[in-house]
């Protein structure tokens, strides 16, 4: 019963809501099926499937809210969870930031978050996709570890004020690390899509294999400031620190890189290179997301940074009311416009620099400047006269995405990638950056 149709979800929510005696009641319903294969040392180690569903009931009396969760949907269980949420609400202290639940909302046309081919993926096809990846490893005398998971899910919500929202989605996620037999070379690739037809595990495994064999004889370079080309899997883990911090309240309260003295903010200021355009659009065909946010607000296209200028910040409903502006929910996915060059063309146009496959273990150093530290891994290469000359040992870096986007030299074509830190998807271009700060060497591969 993991996947419910819109009609089934509506009927179940309506029945649960009928038991409510609260001043306000809101119910979220969700579920899904997922299947996976995990492999290590060139053989499958585990495979499995998960089916899940849950209902979350929130009851409100004034500003007192109680929440209860259940995964059984017979009539007695539905009434029980609603009563439990009401009991908890009576015991709860008042929430000074409570906002009344939303009434009916108008959402745009449904987005293509659900792809039938992904939902109908068979165990045989999933095994064939993993087999293709393992063959690359064995043919190249490399050791592979990877994970492939496909999922199908739905989410719905209804409240006592007449709001109803529903969405379905599919996803297929793949990551693989290939190592040389002596452990000195490592390559990595990761991709995630709504549509299984876009995931070529053979092609992505070959890329990782090339990086693994090519990085086995790494040389040490002195730490310092270098021109770098960040592949999308590397760039996203720094960029998400930037666009994840575009929050109005933290800026207004002086807790953000966007804060100014006296409660002012940098909203409307040019913060980064004018070639930087970052926006969200649930209807984007390469990164479709739900038309509604977790609290039921409509999700529409929002320009967050336009020609380097901070155009919008996310406002919760509470903070928007306090400031007298319209609320803007956090986006479901982020898109950064790119250029026309391929990664190979960016490399060809680089006199001296370093190609970075991946950044990981990202940790904050200074929230006020968005300064972060982390490490390169899984293939770091020195570029000279437009060609990759030799692999280099990994570095620790200290860098701010704000400074990074002010040192922008070139942008490649945007592509869908997935963060190795948060697991979030985005459309991100490869970026050529000058004066990227490498602070020390790392012995890890």
Structure description:
The protein is an alpha+beta fold. Helices cover 23% and strands 39% of the residues. The chain has ten helices and 21 strands. The strands form four sheets. A six-stranded antiparallel β-sheet has the order 3-2-1-4-5-6. A six-stranded mixed β-sheet has the order 12-11-10-13-20-19, with helices on one face. Strands 7-14-15-17-21 form a five-stranded mixed barrel. A hairpin with a 5-residue loop joins strand 5 and strand 6 (186-193). The two termini are 44 Å apart.
Which key terms come to mind for this protein?
globular; six-stranded antiparallel sheet; six-stranded mixed sheet; alpha+beta; 10 helices; 445 residues
Helices, strands, pairings?
Blueprint (H helix, E strand, L loop, with lengths): L5 H13 L5 E17 L2 E19 L2 E7 L4 H17 L24 H4 L3 H17 L2 E18 L4 E17 L5 E8 L7 H14 L9 E7 L1 H12 L4 H5 L6 E2 L3 E2 L12 E3 L21 E5 L2 E2 L6 H7 L10 E3 L6 H6 L3 E15 L4 E14 L2 E5 L2 E6 L1 H6 L1 E4 L3 E4 L6 E4 L2 E12 L3
Helix pairs in contact: 4-5
What is the strand tally?
A: 21
Number of separate helices: 10
* Rg, Cα atoms, Å: 24 Å
Q: What is the helix fraction of residues, given as a range?
A: 10-25%
In brief:
With 445 residues, this protein is an alpha+beta fold. The chain has helices at residues 6-18, 75-91, 116-119, 123-139, 201-214, 232-243, 248-252, 317-323, 343-348, 401-406; strands spanning 24-40, 43-61, 64-70, 142-159, 164-180, 186-193, 224-230, 259-260, 264-265, 278-280, 302-306, 309-310, 334-336, 352-366, 371-384, 387-391, 394-399, 408-411, 415-418, 425-428, 431-442.
């Amino acid at each position: 019963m993991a996947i419910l149709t819109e009609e089934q979800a509506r009927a179940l929510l309506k029945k649960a809501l009928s038991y409510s005696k609260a001043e306000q009641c809101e119910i979220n319903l969700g579920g899904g099926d997922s299947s996976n294969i995990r492999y290590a040392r060139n053989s499958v180690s585990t495979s499995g499937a998960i089916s899940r569903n849950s209902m979350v009931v929130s009851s409100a009396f004034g500003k007192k809210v109680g929440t209860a969760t259940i995964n059984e949907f017979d009539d007695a269980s539905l009434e029980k969870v609603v009563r439990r949420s009401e009991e908890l609400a009576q015991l709860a202290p008042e929430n000074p930031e409570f906002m009344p639940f939303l009434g009916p909302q108008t959402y745009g046309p449904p987005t293509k978050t659900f792809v039938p081919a992904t939902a109908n993926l068979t165990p045989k096809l999933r095994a064939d996709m993993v087999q293709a990846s393992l063959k690359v490893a064995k043919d190249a005398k490399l050791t592979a570890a990877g994970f492939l998971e496909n999922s199908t899910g739905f989410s719905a919500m209804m409240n006592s004020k007449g709001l109803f929202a529903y969405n379905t989605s599919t996803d297929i996620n793949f990551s693989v690390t290939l190592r040389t037999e002596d452990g000195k070379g490592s390559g990595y690739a990761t991709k995630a899509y709504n549509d299984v037809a876009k995931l070529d595990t053979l092609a992505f495994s070959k890329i990782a294999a090339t990086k693994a064999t090519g990085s086995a004889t790494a040389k040490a370079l002195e730490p310092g400031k270098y021109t770098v080309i960040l592949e999308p899997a590397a760039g996203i883990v720094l960029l998400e620190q930037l666009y994840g911090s575009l929050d109005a309240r933290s800026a207004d309260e002086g807790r953000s890189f966007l804060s100014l003295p006296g409660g002012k903010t940098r909203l409307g200021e040019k913060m980064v290179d004018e070639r930087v355009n970052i926006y969200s659009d649930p209807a984007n065909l390469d990164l479709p997301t739900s038309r509604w946010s977790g609290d039921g607000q409509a999700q529409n296209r929002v320009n967050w940074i336009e020609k380097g200028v901070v155009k919008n910040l996310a406002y919760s409903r509470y903070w928007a009311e306090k400031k007298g502006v319209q609320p803007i929910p956090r986006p479901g996915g982020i898109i950064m416009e790119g250029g026309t060059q391929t990664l190979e063309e960016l490399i060809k146009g680089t006199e001296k620099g370093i190609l970075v496959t991946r950044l990981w273990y990202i940790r904050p150093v200074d929230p006020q400047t968005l300064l972060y530290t982390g490490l390169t891994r899984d293939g770091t290469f020195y570029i000279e006269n437009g060609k990759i000359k030799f692999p280099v040992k990994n570095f620790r870096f200290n860098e701010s995405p704000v400074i990074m986007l002010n040192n922008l030299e070139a942008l490649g074509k945007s592509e869908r990638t997935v963060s190795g830190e948060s697991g979030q998807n985005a459309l991100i271009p490869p970026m050529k950056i000058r004066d990227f700060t490498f602070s020390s060497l790392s012995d890890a591969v």
